[in-house]
Design a protein that fits this description.
alpha/beta
C-alpha cells in the first residue's frame, strides 16, 4: 500500500494488483485495481462491516477482460473514518464518485454486495453519466424483508469484540454451516464501534426514506439482481421486489447464502460476467 499521496504502487505488470490511497476532502480512501488497465471498468463495493477483501475470491474470475476496481468505504478496511462523521449513503456514493473521477474513470458497471448496493445506487442517482449498469448481490430491497435477529448488544467500552462475538454477529452473513473466515473476523475487529454502528444505521435510514426498487425504477439503468436462496439476513423471495424495475434481471443462486461472492464465486461470476459485458 502507498502513502496517502494518491500515487499508486504496482505489484508487477499492467494487470497486477495496484493499491492506492487517495487523499479526499473528508478523509483518505483506499482502493485497488486488477486486470487490464485499458479494459472496461467493473467497480466492486462491499457491504457494512466488510472491506474490499471480501471480493478476493471473485476478482480473479473477472479480470481477463475487465479493469476491476475495489474500494474500501469510509471507516472500513484501509480507508479513514470521515472527518465530518458523515456515513450517510448519499455521502458514501458521492465519495466513491470522487474517487473514480480521480482515477479518470468515465464509465463503469457498478456491483454492490449487501449494503454496498445502497452506495452503488446512490452513486447512480447522483452520477448517471458514470454508472452504465448496476449489479446488486443479496442487497435487501426494503426493511420489511430483513429477517436476521438483532445482534447481541456489545458495550462500546468493551470494544473491540472477541472472535466468538464477531463470529456470532457475522454468522447470518453466510449459509448455515459455512465457517466465517478469520480474515473477516480480524478486519471487523479493526473497525471502530462508531464506524460499524453508524454505517449500519445509515443503510437503514436510506431504505426507510425509500425502498430500493422504487429508487431504481426511476433511474432507467440496466439492473441485475443476484440473490442466494439460502440468505439468512434478507428474505430470499424479496428478490422478486426488484421486478418492478423495467427490464431487471433477477436470478437466484441455489444453495448460496447472503455472501455468494465468497461462498460461490464461480457461480456468481458466471451470472455477473455476461450481464456486465452486455452493458460495457
Amino acid at each position: 500500500m502507498t502513502p496517502p499521496d494518491g500515487h499508486p504502487h504496482q505489484n508487477g505488470g499492467a494487470g497486477a494488483t495496484e493499491d492506492s490511497v487517495l487523499s479526499l476532502e473528508h478523509g483518505d480512501i483506499y482502493l485497488c485495481q486488477d486486470g487490464p488497465r485499458d479494459g472496461p471498468v467493473l467497480l466492486l463495493i462491499h457491504g457494512s462491516a466488510a472491506t474490499s477483501r471480501s471480493w478476493n475470491a471473485l476478482v480473479p474470475l473477472l479480470t481477463t477482460l475487465h479493469r476491476v476496481i475495489r474500494i474500501d468505504l469510509p471507516g472500513h478496511g484501509r480507508s479513514a473514518e470521515p472527518v465530518d462523521g458523515d456515513y450517510a449513503i448519499r455521502e458514501q456514493g458521492r465519495r466513491v464518485g470522487t474517487a473514480l473521477d480521480r482515477l479518470g474513470v468515465g464509465h463503469a458497471v457498478v456491483v454492490g454486495h449487501s449494503s454496498g448496493g445502497y452506495a452503488a445506487t446512490a452513486l447512480a442517482e447522483q452520477r448517471p453519466d458514470l454508472v452504465t449498469a448496476l449489479v446488486l448481490i443479496n442487497t435487501g430491497p426494503g426493511m420489511d424483508a430483513f429477517t436476521a435477529p438483532g445482534p447481541a448488544v456489545i458495550d462500546p467500552a468493551r470494544w473491540p469484540p472477541t472472535d466468538d462475538q464477531i463470529r456470532q454477529f457475522a454468522s447470518t452473513a453466510f449459509r448455515a454451516g459455512y465457517e466465517v473466515p478469520q480474515e473477516l473476523v480480524d478486519e471487523l475487529r479493526g473497525m471502530t464501534y462508531h464506524a460499524v454502528t453508524t454505517a449500519m444505521q445509515a443503510s437503514v435510514a436510506y431504505l426507510n426514506r425509500q425502498a430500493l426498487p422504487d429508487r431504481l425504477r426511476t433511474l432507467g439503468k440496466p439492473l441485475q439482481v443476484i440473490f442466494g436462496d439460502q440468505d439468512r439476513r434478507w428474505r430470499p423471495s424479496s428478490a422478486a421486489d426488484y421486478r418492478v424495475v423495467p427490464g431487471a434481471r433477477v436470478e437466484l443462486l441455489p444453495g448460496a447464502g447472503h455472501t455468494p461472492i465468497l461462498e460461490e464465486p464461480a457461480r456468481t461470476a458466471a451470472l455477473l460476467l455476461p450481464f456486465a459485458e452486455s452493458h460495457m
